[in-house]
Amino acid sequence: MTEETRQFYAAAIQDMCLMDDIFFCRFFDGNIDCTQYVLRIIMDKSDLIVKSAKSQFNVENIRGRGIRLDVLAVDSAGKLYNIEVQRKDDGAVPQRARYNSSLLDADNLEKGANFRDLPETFVIFITENDVLKGGKQIYHIERVVKETGKNFGDGSQIVYVNGSMRGGSALGD
């Protein structure tokens, strides 16, 4: 490698942070300890145990658009976590979260299996800005029965982390 090439790469790496997709994926790929640390903070569960963490995980859809997950983690209870880092606001639209959730479901239930065997899933967007514009550090989205106000309990959750808010909590730090 020439000195010019080395300097180019050194400068590019120096400008990166975990909000950069390529750096995020490389950092978390197979890194169970770091994935567990981040998920414990986001989920506010100090006893969460991550069993596996893969980055750039492809979920194919033979009838339509597939997805590439930034990170797919599985915890000791079999719950699935799709962690997406997103700098551009339009990359974290609710429909994308819904689509990721649907393909996670479709990819994780064997033919003939009981629907109750479908694992609990979390689609987590860590965004650079407050894309939901509510002034909150974190947003937890679950389906609710409108008429009763009770949680539907289908095991599908979406979480948005507002990366623009700093300090004040473990999440902000």
Task: Return residue spans where pLDDT drops below 50 for at least 5 consecutive residues.
Answer: none
* Class computed from helices, strands and strand pairing: alpha/beta
Number of DSSP strand runs? 6
Beta-strand residue percentage:
25-35%
Task: Give the oligomeric state.
Answer: single chain
Termini Cα gap: 38 Å
Instruction: Quickly count the helices.
Output: 4
> Helix and strand succession?
HHHEEEHEEE
Helix content: 25-40%
Strand order of the largest sheet: 1-2-3-4-6-5
Element layout with pairings:
Blueprint: H1 3-14, H2 21-28, H3 32-43, E1 50-59, E2 67-75, E3 80-86, H4 94-107, E4 121-127, E5 138-142, E6 156-162
Parallel strand pairs: 3-4, 4-6
Antiparallel strand pairs: 1-2, 2-3, 5-6
Report on the architecture of this protein.
- This protein is 27% helix and 26% strand.
- The protein is an alpha/beta fold and 173 residues long.
- It has one domain (17-162).
- It has a six-stranded mixed β-sheet, sandwiched between helices.
- Strand 3 (80-86), helix 4 and strand 4 (121-127) form a beta-alpha-beta unit.
- It starts with a helix and ends in an 11-residue tail after the last strand.
- The mean pLDDT is 90.
Short summary:
By secondary structure, this protein is of the alpha/beta class. 27% of the residues lie in helices and 26% in strands.
